[in-house]
Amino acid sequence: MKKYIITLHEVGVRLDKVISMLDNNISRTMIQKMLLDNKILVNGQSKKPSYKVEENDEISIEEIKLQNVNLKPEDIPIEILYEDKDIIVVNKPKGLVVHPGNGNPDGTLVNAIMNICKDSLSGIGGEIRPGIVHRLDKDTSGVLIVAKNDIAHINISNQIKNREVNKIYIALVRGRINENEATIDMPIGRSLKDRKKMSVSKNGKQAITHFIVLKRYKNYTLLKIKIDTGRTHQIRVHMAQIGHPVVGDMVYSNGNNPFGVEGQMLHSKSIEFKHPITNKIMKIEAELPQYFDKILRDLDNNEEELCN
Question: pLDDT at position 115, please?
């Protein structure tokens, strides 16, 4: 963590400009992204790029850890839902990691997108996350936006931060939920027992999940879910917390299910946002994966048999 103290000479200058003056190794676009992600703080608090610095303000800048990686394009089949010169929206399949990381050096969505877009991706996400504006868990399928340039990346990131992006998910959860609709407002933070997991915690960040019951089965409930916040594993943690874990979730439940599904039955059905350049309202949808649709049809058939 780098720290700088504002002197009288810098008083009144915009925060983003001051950071460029203090550290010329960080690009303007990267500064915007780091401010958005709270990786640059003023006196321990997040501030807008337009904030005018004051004498003795302490600027904390999280150091960027560059990783020695060699990303290569890979011919991985990906359904393209929409594409233009600024963004590409894809239907991420279940089982595909979004970007390289520990244990997943290649074979990721990023490798697939690089094969499609070649050199046309934003660089704000860093060398292992080119174009990645938001993520989906490995075993969550559905709509995901990738930015092709830095302007698009910053714009969509701001929309997400300001809760202007409408994300709708479909989930099959265990047990019958009696309420037709409800809101879960429980803070989520890193689990103290297992650092690889998240948990509901009073010291966590606010997390809000809304759900509407689409259909009830004997032992399961099909939900339409909207999230106001985008905490890691948010839907999975919230549903497990209220006693209705997502079917197949191997992390937040025992994963047992008669369907033999490994990984959560959670699908990002649609996303609505403003195009980062034209401001046109975009609503893009992805059909349920075949396995998900088949399980729902099997459940429908079983319910009909029970009624006969």
Answer: 77
- Reduce the DSSP state of residue 104 to 3 states and report it: strand
Task: Kindly state whether residues 130 and 104 are assigned to the same domain.
Answer: yes
CATH code for the domain of 203: 3.30.2350.10
Q: Are 19 and 32 found together in one domain?
A: yes
Of 12, 21, 19, 23, whose CA–CA distance to 41 is shortest? Answer: 19
Q: 192-205 pLDDT, tens per residue?
A: 888 778 999 988 89
C-alpha–C-alpha distance, residues 225 and 227, integer Å: 7
Give the CATH number of the domain where residue 30 resides: 3.10.290.10
What is the spatial distance between Cα 138 and Cα 303, in angstroms, rounded to a whole number?
A: 31
Is residue 307 packed enough to be buried (19+ CB in 10 Å), middle (13-18) or exposed (0-12)?
exposed
Is 119 assigned a catalytic role? no
What digits encode the pLDDT tens for the residues 159-190?
998 899 999 999 999 999 999 999 999 999 98
- Kindly state whether residues 207 and 75 are assigned to the same domain: no
- Distance (Å, whole) CA 107 – CA 23: 35
The per-residue pLDDT for 129 is 56
**DSSP sequence for 241-308:** HTT-PBTT-SSSS----TT---S--EEEEEEEEE-TTT--EEEEE-PPPHHHHHHHHHHHHHHHHHH-
Tell the burial category of 79 from Cβ atoms under 10 Å away from its Cβ (0-12, 13-18, 19+): exposed
Buried b / exposed e over 22-53, threshold 16 CB at 10 Å, is: eeeebeebbbbbbbbeebbbbeeeebeeebeb
pLDDT value of residue 103 = 55
Choosing from 16, 86, 137, 139, the catalytic residue is 137
Report phi then psi at 160, rounded to 5: -65, -45
71 lies in which domain range?
A: 67-162
